[in-house]
Design a protein that fits this description.
- By secondary structure, this protein is α+β, with helices and mostly antiparallel strands.
- Among the domains are: 65 residues, Single Sheet (N-terminal domain of TfIIb), CATH 2.20.25.90; 57 residues, Dimethylsulfoxide Reductase, domain 2 (3-Layer(aba) Sandwich); 150 residues, no CATH class.
- The chain is built from 16 helices and 21 strands.
- A 5-stranded antiparallel sheet has the order 14-13-21-20-19. Strands 3-4-5 form a 3-stranded antiparallel sheet.
- Strand 20 and strand 21 form a beta hairpin.
- GO terms for molecular function: 4 iron, 4 sulfur cluster binding; metal ion binding; oxidoreductase activity.
- Pfam families: Molybdopterin, Nitr_red_alph_N.
Length: 491
């Protein structure tokens, strides 16, 4: 029926009634309902993920209509884990769920931006200098100009520019820096390969050809443990989050799992059903703290002291007083503690730790012909110098030798953590001490800024015929902790 008459004030349809006039049959326009029905209509479904600055790689179903993303939902077709582990799905987080909105948001960055004060200085400099490098130099050599744009950092003030203008500025800045300080003073970070292989390759190749410094994932992000690759040689090459379910004791330290690893947080909570104890170490009552059995709340800035206290207990109780095969074998096999470090002499007769000794430093490279300059050296329990598998020289060397088996030169070997008992002399090694620095927030303990501690040292003959004192990383760690080993050490 035509709804034209319904629009007139004085013309009304007489509605049909039922139930003795208590009910009325309505014929109202319901076209408005199409608006919310169309909101969830789609032409096709595609699989995608939210890979910008996130390595979660969660699988999502993306609903597309007329070439536009309308909405999205988590995929539920992940492969089944083994029967005693929870499934991975559904993986996702609120940030990912809002991604389709962000695509068309006014807040999305679509054009290059630059600080207004800097671009004004740059444009003015180009008017005075035809050479862009000289134009940039005029800014850098003027302290007032430098200060004018640097002092407003962190306060916004960005305006839109174009790539041609900014590429010229970047190139001029790089050339001036190279001419003034050298190419290694140009440092940059490309997106990790997991995010964009093209972006990673482009930026890394540019810096490499330039002679610049390529920053790693660990240099750029502040929530990653740089000590991990320094000790183990890998950037947290750890198992997947499902492996948390195999643990019986978990310490969450430096990672707010529900917030920064939302898709995997369910493993952290589900493992408590099987009796696993979880501990959170955070100054504030964060999201991960509420999911744990115990919450340790150290004062801000003291978590490193807490970690060193734990290390002191482990080394003293399970390495010195009551040696534990589990702890000792773990350090022997999975860390750099058995490796030997060169000692460099000081004017007062003591030594300071230098670099690790390599196979190439010794006569005939200890039989290593492939990358001996990248292979570290240790002493086994028989007192022999060995080149254990697993160092970087093996990784980029012979096929099949990149592993952590207790093998050296093709034979089984057991590395010695300490040189104590195999040492030639006991020598003093100097360590810096920072605990005596006055601080308004923490207590200081006065000691000499340099503490000389006694270590077992072995003398090795190098390929050039000189004698070099060496010590193991394990002995250096124990000395740095100030643990008494019966070497008449007053410090």
């Amino acid at each position: 029926m035509s709804k034209l008459l319904d629009r007139f004030r004085y013309f009304k349809q007489k509605g049909e009634t039922f139930a003795d006039g208590h009910g009325q049959v309505m014929h109202s326009n319901r076209d408005w309902e199409d608006s919310y029905r169309q909101r969830w209509q789609f032409d096709k479904i595609v699989r995608s993920t939210h890979g910008v600055n996130c390595t979660g790689s969660c699988s999502w179903k993306i609903y597309v209509k007329n070439g536009l993303v309308t909405w999205e939902i988590q995929q539920t077709d992940y492969p089944r884990t083994r029967p005693d582990l929870p499934n991975h799905e559904p993986r996702g987080c609120p940030r990912g769920a809002s991604y389709s909105w962000y695509l068309y948001s006014a807040n999305r960055l679509k054009y290059p931006l630059i600080r207004k004060r800097l671009i004004e200085l740059w444009r003015e400099a180009l008017k005075q200098h035809s050479d862009p490098v000289l134009a940039w130099a005029s800014i850098m050599n003027d302290p007032q100009k430098c200060l004018s744009y640097k002092q407003v950092r962190g306060r916004g003030g960005f305006i839109r520019s174009n790539w041609q203008e900014l590429n010229q500025l970047i190139a001029a800045a790089n050339v001036w820096t190279i001419k003034t300080y050298g190419p290694d003073r140009v440092a940059g970070f490309s997106p990790i390969p997991a995010m964009s292989m093209v972006s990673y390759a482009a930026g890394t190749r540019y810096l490499s050809l330039l002679g610049g410094t390529c920053l790693s994932f660990y240099d750029w992000y502040c929530d990653l443990p740089p000590a991990s690759p320094m000790t183990w040689g890998e950037q947290t090459d750890v198992p997947e989050s499902a492996d948390w379910y195999n643990s019986s004791y978990i310490i969450a330290w430096g990672s707010n799992v529900p917030q920064t690893r939302t898709p995997d947080a369910h493993f952290f909570t589900e493992v408590r059903y099987k009796g696993t104890k979880t501990i959170a170490i955070t100054p504030d009552y964060s999201e991960v703290a509420k999911l744990c059995d115990q919450w340790l709340a150290p004062k801000q800035g003291t978590d490193s002291a807490l970690a060193m206290a734990m290390g002191h207990v482990i080394l003293k109780e399970f390495h010195l007083n009551n040696p534990s095969d589990y702890f000792i074998n773990y350090c022997r096999r999975y860390s750099d503690m058995p490796m030997l470090v060169m000692l460099e002499p000081r004017d007062d007769g003591s030594y300071v730790p230098g670099r690790m000794i390599r196979a190439s430093d010794l006569v005939d490279g200890l039989g290593e012909s492939n990358n001996p300059q990248w292979k570290t050296v240790a002493v086994n329990t028989a007192g022999e110098l060995v080149v254990p598998n697993g160092s970087i020289g093996f990784r980029w060397g012979e096929k099949g030798k990149w592993n952590l088996e207790s093998i050296a030169a093709g034979t089984e070997t057991e590395l010695s953590l300490t040189l104590l008992g195999q040492h030639d002399v006991v020598a003093g090694v100097a360590f810096p001490y920072f605990g005596g620095i006055e601080n308004p927030h923490f207590r200081s303990v006065k000691h000499n800024p340099v503490l000389v501690r006694q270590l077992p040292v072995k003398n090795l003959t190098l390929v050039d015929g000189n004698t070099c004192p060496v010590v193991s990383v394990y002995d250096l760690v124990l000395a740095n902790y100030g643990l008494d080993r019966g070497l008449e050490d007053e410090n």
